[in-house]
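Risk register update: the risk of archive-format incompatibility is retired. Evidence:
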Amino acid sequence: MSTASWKNKRGERALLLALFVPVLGANIWCAVNTAKIVAQQAVIKEDYALVNSIRNGLLSVDVWKEHIQDIVGERITHLRFSKQEEAALKIEIENVIKAMIDEANTVMHKDQTTFRGKVRKLAFKTFVPALSKETPEIAVSVVTEIQKPANLEKLKMLALNQLNNYAEQTHDNIPTGSSLDPILKKYNSNSPEDFNGRAAKLLGSLQNKIQRNTSVMIGSLFLILFAWWQARKRRDLHKTLYVLSVALAFILLLSSLSLPLIDIDARIKNVDFSLLGKHLQFNNQLLYYRSKSIMQMVKVLIASGKADSSFVGVLLLLFSIIFPIAKLLCTLLSLLGGARFRDNRVVHFFAYKSGKWSM
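Archived output:
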């Protein structure tokens, strides 16, 4: 090989490195940035799962208390008596008045030997029989008085105050509502509904960033494949291209191992029913949420203490992590390490025979 030819090939390898080393650097940045974004997403999703947990919604005594307060309060605020209710109320008032008269009559027929007792008995005989005859009129007057705007407003306030007193005595055994305050404050939200809107926007924004990073990494794959196609007949460049390809594969593999493998989200989408004429809705009530990467899945399965779960965890560790990494390393050793590594059975197996064992 002439000196000029050797220098020319060396220059081409240097150009190849100058082109792809920044590409590898960009992929490393994208991988690290994506891992950070996924960590942010995980925090938001965990907060979302807590805020929308069925324990803080459909199964929360505090939430039901608030709904019932609103419904009953609204019914009291718009309190009006129908003709049938007026008639029933009059009957009840008449019965109360009659019961009072009967009680008074019983007391007055007891021995009244003192002067004071005789005066009370005389007054009773004078006024109470007339009162008994006027009971229907008194009931009508009471109902009419109750329905005057000022008195009706007082009645509403008394009922609402009593309702609030009862509500204050009713609460969850575990104060779940107060535990949501730090989360709502963290996202500058005034309510779970406000938080849900903000969380959806944040997750959408983060997902767009992940897609941009992923596009760069996939684009890098196509770029290096294009370089292989262009240099398919240049055997002197194959070693350099292979090293760059393995480096890119390492970046993608390590990035993928840190990303979520599975998101489990069990939820009740919508519960809608009517209570005292008002619709109650519970949306996105989460029953269960978990997000795990391959590494986290392996850790959970092996740490479970159950033989079957630990066995599955070992299989995942072996075929999804150890085999791919070992294959990449052994391929580099076989290519760059000389005859001593190429003739090694372990290196030869992982470099050329282990592909079918990888997941």
